[in-house]
Fold these 2 entries.
Entry 1:
Amino acid sequence: MSEAREAAKAHWYLIQCKGGESFRAAENLTNQGFHVFHPLLEVEKKRGGKLRWVEEPLFPYYLFIRLDQMDDNWRPIRSTRGVLKLVSFGNTPTAVPTPLVEALIASGEQRQEQPSENVYFRAGEQVEIIDGPLSSLSGVFESAKGDERVIVLLNLINQQQRVELSSRQLRRSES
């Protein structure tokens, strides 16, 4: 079967991981031959009294997996260490829109460090994400969380999600 035809049959799905085990789940699923995407975000954290850049999951407790309903054996997923469940509505796993996952993958590959700006936003203000896996998405500024972090509301996966970002990743929306 051609690669293009095979890719057309496969869809992205969302896996919910056990607390703090998304890295373990991603590694174990990859070792079993599954195609997994675990979007990460570089954040500045205080470790041992020093600020250091560390990678954290963009969506804590979640990762994406590409599966074909007809060809892939989904049973091992449920018993994989670190996996809690395949996100479903009713009894049917729900596919995540492919353009959303492709945009996350592409923006992660093009990640750039932005210069630090002291920009202040007001609650309810339209903002645009300019760096990181969610770059080019628009959202609504909700609140500041410390000096460098902010909470933004984004419409993702058919519902509004709170996302914590560095204030350096935002700019006021021009629209």
Entry 2:
Amino acid sequence: MRRVVIVVPSLFTLFNLFFGIWSMVLASRGEFYRAAWYIVFAGILDALDGRVARLSNTGTRFGAELDSLVDVVSFGVAPAFLIYQLEFASGGQAEWIFCYFYVMAAAIRLARFNLTQAGRAKHAFIGLPSPAAGMTLATFYPFTTTGLWQEVARYLPRHHTMQLLVILLTILMVSNVRYATLPRAGLRTARGLLGLATILFILSFGVLEHDAFLFPLGVAYMAYGVLRATILGFFLDAGEDEEAEIAGPIVITDGGRG
């Protein structure tokens, strides 16, 4: 029975991968709207797998590594492929490079996370989380189908907006800007009640006004980290245990001299 319970979080992770792959299949067929929302579904499953592992006390190193590999696909490759098919394929011959740098940043972000934060209690992420980046990128297209975008589009051409968005997401994923985790919901403390209210607010508008709500929410989360870092000077300070986070995936150490 214990072995069955241990497998459950990984099943959420594998369904996350399923939706990431399915999104790319749909994007290749020109079904961009559905492809975008399957990346959001992958994000929901990504949020659930970690919570299931913690609640059941079944977190494993295998599960953590699998989660990061799947996230590269679902929130790195899948959003990049969607945006390439939607916007960049018809542009200049070199516009695929935007997608390359985005996927590269997602891979670096997840590798750095595994080295520095995986398995630890987290109050903040170092750099924009790749699921947040992937879902923000994916929900841009549904947002362009709304009346709100029609007002904005008079000032911001879609193609240039997409280029700018990809650049910003790429930079923020590998930055040292801190982003708060989703607040924990509860009924016993003021913080828990605030977390519950926040989650209910996001779920309510995410269901009722998903096309118009989720992309602006992602942009607001991006801006939140940058503004917090700018106003409070909340960039990560370098320390012995934090150098790997700042350096990214390349860390040079002194192996000792004999």
